[in-house]
Amino acid sequence: MGNDLKVFAGKSNPQLAQGICKALGIGLGNMESVRFSNENIKVKICENVRGGDVFFIQTSCPPVSENLMELLIALDALKYASAGRITAVLPYYPYALADSKDEPRISVAGRLMADLLAEAGADRILTMTLHSPQIMGFSRIPVDQLSGVPTICQYYHEHLDLGNVVVASPDISRAKVTESYAKRLGLPLVVIDKRRGEDGVVRVHGVIGEVEGRNVIFFDDEIITGNSIFGGAKGVRERGANQIFAGCVHGTLSGETTAHLAATDIQSLAITDTIPLLADKQNEKIKVCSVAELFANAIRAIHDETSISALYT
User: Fold this and answer.
1) pTM for the full predicted model
2) Domains of the chain with bracketed CATH
């Protein structure tokens, strides 16, 4: 069958997988995934993949451990079904935040994920906006990292008058990440200076840059609890900012983040669909921008063995 392009997907983000296949002009591969009463998972590839160029899509989202096991078992099934090449498409990389040994006697789980993916059968990895670039160095197989920054910037370029806007980093440690958004939009960058007091509470100590009378957009690569951006929004509002917006690539939005967002002065939060926005987290302030076409372009380029460097930035 040569190196026919085939795309399969786990249960983590079916809408994104369908969007990628629609952009590619192909159907999603036929696969069965069963979770037994003892919580074991079985994956069966229900079509011939021998010699094929196979892409398996699975993002890291709740239930994280179950989605991870489905991914590893599916990769193993594809390997033993004699797929020619297997690419693990991971819109949000599993354990991406566990990228360093910042405490004694802990696992660098981001490195462990890279080892598991290679051992399970992946020949390469396609992902988006890693928390730290060093994760690519953990892998023994090639890693292509797409950027979700252009997608989020394009949203605000189309929906907001940028004539009186500054881009804000939620804290000093994220300034380098936020700078990429500011450069792409051609806007000045301000930084929120937050410090932990003697009582253990983190407070905004100051704002580096001018926000009075201006609209502000907070950008980061991921929002989990949103506390950094919510605190920053309060800080710039107290210093005379007008409208406040936010954007990130990965909208993890754990716990009560969506409810807290609704109670803030933030007008809108733009995220991508690397992580599915479940019904109980939906809010009129949250705007979802699809990266399906971007992933489809990368998959097509990998399959055709052409450059995808233009998709990195």
Assistant:
1) 0.94
2) 5-148+292-311 (3.40.50.2020), 149-289 (3.40.50.2020)
